[in-house]
Give the backbone structure.
Amino acid sequence: MEREKLEEVNSSLKDRSLEKMKKKFKISKPKGKLGVLIPGIGGAVSTTFIAGIESYKQGSGKLFGSLSQMGTIRIGKRTEKNTPYIKDLISLANVEDLEFFGWDVYPQDCYKATVKAGVLDRTLIDNLKDKLERIKPNKAVFNKKFAENLTGKNIKKEKNYFKLALELIAEIKAFKKEKNIDRLVMIWCGSTEIFFKKGKIHESIKSFEDALRKNHKGISPSMIYAYAAIKCGAAYANGAPNLSVDIPALEKLSKKNNVPIAGKDFKTGQTLMKTILAPGIKSRLLGLNGWFSTNILGNRDGEVLDNPKNFKTKEESKLSVLEHIFQPEINQELYGDFYHKVRINYYPPRGDQKEAWDNIDIFGWLGYEMQIKVNFLCRDSILAAPIVLDLIIFMDLAQRAGMYGIQEWMSFYFKSPMVGENLYPEHDVFVQSMKLKNTLRFLAGEKNIDHLGLDYYYE
Ligand SMILES: NC(=O)c1ccc[n+]([C@@H]2O[C@H](COP(=O)([O-])OP(=O)(O)OC[C@H]3O[C@@H](n4cnc5c(N)ncnc54)[C@H](O)[C@@H]3O)[C@@H](O)[C@H]2O)c1
């Protein structure tokens, strides 16, 4: 067959399979309340997020940084000048309909925990006192082995992991019934657990459940929460770099139970900057000799990460980003030998107001060397809160659309995006943004945008 004909057939096949998929994903309307389940509800990210939502409900807080609330999306050709808000294109859950429920190792209610986190102004927090005081953490499923630096005592007594999962399931069901909840999303905002690799017990649903029953050392608390969530039909997103739902057994369970899952590690601060800068450097074929990143931060997250075993989990997550963007195996001369170092230093005086420094050694034409210095004075939880909101809203959308298993289009929000077998993750934030927006266009029944644009110039 001649080439043109072949391309025509290919594109019509692609269109037909997209059409078939469209029929598969029929979105139901978001009615009633959306229950938000948060392990780590007393932490800096969770409390900044919840206080932000309550402040918005009171009419004062603005949800800056949230794509689901403030983002727009182009539909059709540029000449059509059609750029609606995402929330006007596709039916999303209302922020007013979110209902919170969570667990924490520390017993303080959400008001006290927000004050303790030290991210938001005291006046803002005090204005929300009534609302925040009502949110109290349930006793946590916790194992000190996975986060040694935590000393809280608000922990469930049961020792058997399987029974602990059943306890979580019972709590989730009771919450759903009591608050008349329609749908559920769980988001892990708990501390980063220590680094370990997946093994045999993480392979099948059966081996995982056996391991739960036998209190196997390869089962971390976040896996127990993820298991309970999926069993209850709650979508699950993992904001930390530890494995949690990123194991074959739980992926299989999520497919079996029609539950969407996503992770890992919220992409904020330094890594966000990295995945903004690195694609630019690469696109102009500037070479890279080295990238040195260091941080100071003084919140509880920093305290947990001060333990080398927990830092190792974060380090792995942060390091993989550049390898994937620069593709040294393909671009040997430019990126074959760059040195990448990441440091996190726990420095209490800074609290949540992290400061990050990057020194980037690059080279250009004829090998002449140059340097870029980045000094980002950011606020960790302020950057993470809108991500939490978007993940809740989009994971609920996925669930209503009948999507299940890994949601790669959520990569935009993660440092170590979960992807299907044999796929490498996309780290370039612009590719991730395009993937997310094209998925939204697709779900809304609109054409994807590929930015070719030749149609403006040629018939
Ligand atoms: N803030 C950011 O920008 C950012 C970015 C990427 C990832 N993260 C990750 O998000 C998570 C939350 O960050 P944070 O700054 O709020 O940390 P944090 O230390 O303030 O909060 C974590 C909370 O989780 C609780 N916790 C720990 N183990 C638990 C368990 N098994 N069950 C219930 N609760 C448990 C802790 O008691 C604590 O209150 C961390 O894992 C962090 O690494 C944060």
Summary: The longest strand covers residues 287-297. The mean pLDDT is 94.
